[in-house]
Structure formats: structure tokens, C-alpha cells
Amino acid sequence: MGTLEKHLRERRDSGRKLLCPYVSGGVSDDWLDIIRAYDDAGADAIEVGIPFSDPVMDGPTIQAASDQALGRGTTPATILSELRDLDVATPLIVMTYANVPFRVGFDRFVDECGAAGVHGAIIPDIPMEELDPWEAAVGEADLDTVMLASPISADDRLERLVGRSRGFVYGVNVLGVTGERADLGDWSGKLAGRLKAVTDLPVIMGFGISSPETAVIASAASDGVVVASAIMRIILDGGTAVEAGAFVSSLRTALDRG
Amino acid sequence: MSEPTSAPSLMGEPENGRFGRFGGQYVPETLVGACQEVEAEFHRAWADDGFRTQLADLLRDYAGRPSALTECHRLSEQLGCRILLKREDLNHTGSHKINNVLGQALLAQRMGKQRIVAETGAGQHGVATATAAALLGQDCVVYMGAVDMERQKLNVFRMRLLGAEVRSAETGSRTLKDAVNEAMRDWVATVESTHYLLGSVMGPHPYPMMVREFHRVIGDEAREQVRALTGADPDAVVACVGGGSNAIGIFSGFVDTQASLVGVEPAGGAAIGHGVPGIVHGSTSFLLQDDHGQVQEAKSISAGLDYPGVGPEHAHLADIGRARYEPVTDEEVVEAFQLLARTEGIIPALESAHALAWVARAKDELAGQTVLVNLSGRGDKDVAQIAELLGEDV
After folding, report:
1. For residues B198 and B119, what is the distance between their CA atoms, to the nearest angstrom?
2. Does B247 reside within a domain?
3. Which of A65, A178, B33, B211 would suit a FRET pair with B84, their CA atoms being 20 to 30 Å apart?
4. What is the CA radius of gyration of chain A?
5. Nearest residue in chain A measured CA to CA from B189
6. In this structure, are B290 and B376 located in the same domain?
7. A170 vs A225: CA distance, rounded Å
8. B267 and B384 fall within a common domain
9. Greatest extent of chain A over all pairs of C-alpha atoms, in Å
């Protein structure tokens, strides 16, 4: 079992709801401080976006954060090399699109993730049907490939999908792209329940979580939440790492209170 | 020049959605089911005589097929080869785009999807989609880059006249690739009620195969027409390539002949010419990108070819050497545009003028040959741009 999965299972089994905040790598000069702030605020894993020019699963906020990072000259190599020196024990997960690892070669990308101390990868445009070459490149490396499950994935797909997911399974709360929503609707709870019925992997829900309240709702039937746009909006609006950390603390408090 | 092909699957059903090392289905989990549904329904429809008849009737009675084959006597004399034009410019809405659009709109109807989304660059595919949606009473949303909307105001108005909603893509380079991104984002959110009517032989499987099949009619007609006129197959078949739908359509009629197949790319958007594989918009193909995998913008005189990728089957045809891909410059294109107008009384689309530009450049190589050129669209939409370029005040 990979480092990420072991860590998340232990935390989950201790009765804690899991919190996985996101930062777009290279979004600001102090983006590593943002990660440190998440760590201090009680994150269980931290998702680091490697920006791609054409992020089709992302809404306006993450698109803007990606553009800002790319505009600062950020590349996959700069992100992974800056992560090497990061003094944070919380497991890191990279989130990117297929062309980023494909361009340098899956093998080399996996090696670079290892050197950067990254323990998980989320690549939303590599579905199960296209997963074989990526899985082969990961091989025995300590890099958990997290699969996304959609509210409209059929039952038999969900079963196969959790079988190939490592670290946790990422339940998508909504039909649509990333971005804050006031109301998550019915999909989230239903999908969380369907996933919990077919796997003992941690089930973490993401997309649309905008507040401590929606985080609590999305974690009710699942093991925790990913929060991205709501935090990136703080950064895009000129907020500091401390302010981003304070928001993550408020999520932590709400999840712990239940 | 080329060896006759021996692979029986060439331009047939792709294996696992792949053409050699290209293609595939790189879509988010939310869209996998929809892609599979489109694939299954397309195969059912394509095997259904009722569907085939319905589409053939529309192509004949509404779109005006078969399109003519025109022999260019004066141009042939000037260039020293026998030039035949497949006149897709004569179709309703002025280009080959109508073939695919009618097929997919009927398919959406079969799937019970009342809403259509599409992307458009110059507006040709958007206008064709809006046309088919009006004909079939479907709701239609077309995404178009903000930059393209400004450049192609008339087509924006045409789409609105036809009852479509045109939404501006305000992200990235605000051109065609960004319109595709927005259409995919829309589809992810609306997939239960919406069909994504992709306009070229690109995107995730089954689109490259399906769109090719809807354009196969170009090649099938041309093959019969050329044989009837000349008693033989042409020596060369030439078409412009952006995503590559008109080229795939005409190539499909000749891939099993001795004809050489030539795709002509704009020099500023030569995805195959640059030869770097990548993954974007659902498939692996050649892709204009930087060293870090960020997609770059294509830039040419013709908005319809300004796409940084290319259909995966073209990448495969290039890979195995069955087709060759040549770049032409904007200057050559403008010259060819005027040449056809003056010698034959036909104003071609700037996209189609790329194919003619290559023929003009390669005239020594083509001397004495029969050359079939796909005239994929008419140039009315480009007249103002050419006037401005030539310094004419119109």
C-alpha cells in the first residue's frame, strides 16, 4: 500500500473526516507558504495543480489560477523542483492533465514526482480506458493514482474504477466542472453512498465545495472533501498564505465538529 | 508514387478507438458514458437503412448533393496538370460541413437529445450546426472564441438569425481551441440532455471515425465522378487540413487506389509538419505545443484552419506514409485565392485555397497528372478580409 493511502486510511479509521485543500503550483511567489499554511491548518493531504493551458474539467477560478501561474513562467519542472525542498510531512498529490506527463514521457514524470516527494496523482482526462500505459509507468513507484468517479458512472463502472484507484477514490459532487456552488444538490450524497457500498478505500468528495457548511454536507456520507476554487479565489483576490490557511482552518473546525 | 495499401483496416473501424498510435478517448469520467452512447448509437444508425435513407434524402433535397465535379480547363492549361475540383462549396451553407452536421443532428434526435452544443472557429461549422438545429427544431448553443466573434461578426449574426445562441469563449487565446474547451465544459454539465456536435475529425473516439463516415460521401461521389469523366482514378488527391474533416472525407474514397494523398496545412498551424505528439481535446495526435506540454496557438490567414491539433487519423496516415502533409504560406494562399477566381470564376474559401496553393507550387512535380482538389468551401465569407489585405476599400 502506498504512503498516501496508508496515511489516509489511518486518519479515516481514527474517526477523522479528511480534508484535502488544493493549490495551483506556482500561482504566486509564496505558493510553498500556502502549502505550509494548509499543513498547519490540519490538511490530511495537499493537492498541487500543475497548470495546463487547456483545463477542460476546471471552471473559471482554477482556469484563472492556472493562467496566473503560467504567466509567471511556471512549468511542471519548476513546480516539481521547488517541491523537492519543501519541509512538509503531509502527503502531496499532483493534479494535472494528460498532456503534461505525456510530453516529458510518463516514466520520467513518475520519477520526477518521486524525487519531489509526491505520493499521489490525479489526471482527470485519463479514464480507465486509457489508464494502462500510465499504470505501467507508475509500476512499483510510491505514487498512488487517484481515479475520479462521476455521479453518472454506471454501477459496474464504479466497481471497476475503485478497483483501479489508489490512495482514495475521488467522488465528483456535481455534473460539471470545478467551481464553488452554494448548493451541491442530490448527486453528492448519492454518489458517496454508492462508492462506500463498493469500496473500503477512503472516499473523498470534491467539486463545488465553497464553505464549511458545504464541506460538512459533502463529508456526511463520505470520508472527506477536496476544496480548491474557494481557496484559490482568496489567493486570486490578493489574499495571503495566512488568509488561505485561515480558511482551511475553518474547514477543519467544521469537519471536526461534524 | 504511393504503394497500394494492403492493410484492410485502413480508414475502417479503429481498433480500441485508435489509429495506430493516435486517437483514443482521453475524456473525464463524466463523459465516458456519453462517448460510448454516441458510438453505440452511431453504429446502430449506420446499420439502419431507415437512418441512411433519411440522411441521404436530406443530403440530396436539402444540402444539394451530389456536389458537382468541375474540370478547370484554364487553370489546368496554366499549371500544366489536369485539375478537377470537388465542389463542396456548392452545398447548402457553403461548405462540406453540412454533411457531418446533418448526420450528427439526426443522431442526436435518435438519442433523444434535444439540445446541441458546438464549437466554431471562423463560424462555418457553427452556421452549419445552427442550420441543422433549425431544420430539426433542436436547441443550439455555439461556443466561439471572443477574438473570432469580433473577426467574424457576420457569421455570428447568421447563427443568431438561425435561432442559435452564440456564447463567447473568453479564456486562453479566445480562439477555436478555447471554444472547444468551453463546449466540453458545457457538455460535462449537461451531458444527460445534450449532444456535443463536434465539427471535425478530432476529439475523443468515436468522433474522428464518425465524422469521417459522415464525410465519406465526398470521396465516394468523387471517385465515381472522376472515373466517369476520365476513365481512371486521379494521380493525386489534395485537400486542406486544419482538424482535417474535408480531407478525410475525400481521402476515404481513394485510400485504396494508387492516388497519392496530399493534405495541405497552413505554415503557421502545421501540427503534422511539426511532428510532436500530444494529448488534447480527447485524443492523441500531433499537436503544436511548447516543451512543457502547453498547447500553442495556430496562426494563419484562415481562421478555419487555426487549430493547434489535427485529426488522429491524419497523424496515422502521415506516420505510415500513406498521405503526405505539406505547409503553404499565407502569401501563397492569397495568390491561389485570386488565381482560381480569375481563371475559373470560382471564389474559394481561404481554407480551400491552401490546397490550390500547394498544387500551384508543386506544378512541376504534378506535370501531366490528374489532380483532384477538394474545394471544401466558398469564399464569400473571406472577401472582405482579402480586400483589406489587398488595400481595397469596399
Report:
1. 7
2. yes
3. B211
4. 16
5. A176
6. yes
7. 9
8. yes
9. 45
Which residue, chain included where needed, has cell 509500476? Answer: A139
Instruction: Show the low-confidence residues of chain B (pLDDT under 70).
Output: 1-9
How large is the average pLDDT for residues A229-251? 98
Structural domain boundaries enclosing A121 = 3-257
A92-95 and B82-87: which strand pairing? Answer: unpaired
**C-alpha cell of B196?**
456535443
Q: What distances in angstroms separate CA B384 from CA A180, B176, B375, B381, one per listed residue?
A: 44, 21, 20, 7
Q: How many residues does chain A have?
A: 258
The residue to which cell 468517479 is assigned: A149
Domain of residue B172: give its range. Answer: 19-58+97-207
Contact list, B298 vs chain A (CB under 8 Å)? none
Among the listed residues B172, B182, B94, the one whose alpha carbon sits nearest the alpha carbon of residue B375? B94
Residues B34-68: b if buried by 16+ CB within 10 A, e if exposed: bbbebbebbeebeeeeebeebbeebbeeebebbbe
Residues A243, A246: Cα–Cα separation, whole Å: 5
Claim: this prediction has a pTM higher than 0.95:
yes
Length of chain B: 394
CATH number for the domain spanning B326: value is 3.40.50.1100
Residue of chain B with shortest Cα separation from A54: B181
What CATH number has the domain bearing residue A224? 3.20.20.70
d(CA A183, CA B307): 37
Residue B1 resides in a domain: no
Q: Which residue has the cell 473546525?
A: A253
Angle, alpha carbons A23-A25-A30 (nearest 5°): 85
Residue B394 included in any domain: no
Contacts of B277 in chain A (CB under 8 A): 102
| Main-chain dihedrals φ then ψ at residue A220, nearest 5 degrees | -60, -50
> Can you tell me which residue has the cell 473571406?
B382
**CA–CA separation, B314 vs B51, rounded Å?**
28
Q: Kindly give the interhelix angle for B153-161 and B124-136, rounded to the nearest 10 degrees.
A: 10
B40 and B86 housed in the same domain: no
List the beta strands (DSSP E) in chain A: 18-24, 46-49, 92-95, 118-122, 144-145, 147-149, 169-172, 203-206, 224-227
Helices B29-46/B176-190 angle, 10° precision? 90
CB contact under 8 A, B293 and A77: no
Active site residue B92: no
Number of domains in chain B: 2
**pLDDT tens-place string over residues A77-105:** 999 999 999 999 999 999 999 999 999 99
For A133-180, how does the pLDDT look when each residue is reduced to its tens digit (9 = 90+)? 999 999 999 999 999 999 999 999 999 999 999 999 999 999 999 999
ipTM confidence score: 0.96
Pairing of strands B18-19, B22-23: antiparallel
B136 occurs within a structural domain:
yes
* A107-115 average pLDDT score: 98
CA A173, CA A168: separation in Å to the nearest integer? Answer: 15
Instruction: Name the residue with cell 471544401.
Output: B376
3-state secondary structure of B337: helix
Which residues of chain B make contact with A175, given a CB cutoff of 8 A? 30, 188-192
| A252 vs B221: CA distance, rounded Å | 66
A58 flagged as catalytic: yes
